[in-house]
Design a protein that fits this description.
Number of domains: 2
Shape: globular
Radius of gyration: 15 Å
Number of strands: 10
Largest sheet: 4 strands, antiparallel
Number of helices: 2
Structural class: mainly beta
Helix content: 10-25%
Distance between the termini: 32 Å
Strand order of the largest sheet: 1-2-3-4
């Protein structure tokens, strides 16, 4: 399924690590392949580099994946453990427990 870039840009907003890595001038559409949105140019070619992953939030309960800290981010090629902590949810010790990758995906290491 192809989704116009303008719709995705409106939904994700102008802020955040994921949107700053995208070259919006080149992107015509996104191909939806759950859980990812892959950028496509006006000729129908995939644009190499970052993509967007869908993260579903159910109120205060974030949806996340579990992974090893040595896994490599598809956007910046750094290990997951080097990404910033996400402060949208805290542990019982009032500390963040999820890392946020460049594409917005939340990861429990």
């Amino acid at each position: 399924m192809l989704i116009p870039a303008a719709i995705i840009r409106f939904l994700v907003g102008e802020q955040g690590a994921a949107t700053s890595l995208l070259d919006w001038d080149q992107i015509a559409t996104f191909e939806f392949r759950y859980p990812s949105l892959l950028p496509v140019d006006s000729a129908g070619n995939y644009i190499p580099g970052p993509c967007l992953d869908i993260v579903i939030m159910d109120g205060a309960n974030p949806h996340f994946i579990r992974a090893a800290g040595d896994c490599v981010c598809s956007c910046c090629r750094r290990p997951y453990r080097e990404h910033p902590m996400w402060h949208g949810s805290k542990s019982w010790q009032d500390e963040p427990w999820l890392h946020e990758l460049c594409n917005g995906l939340l990861v429990k290491l």
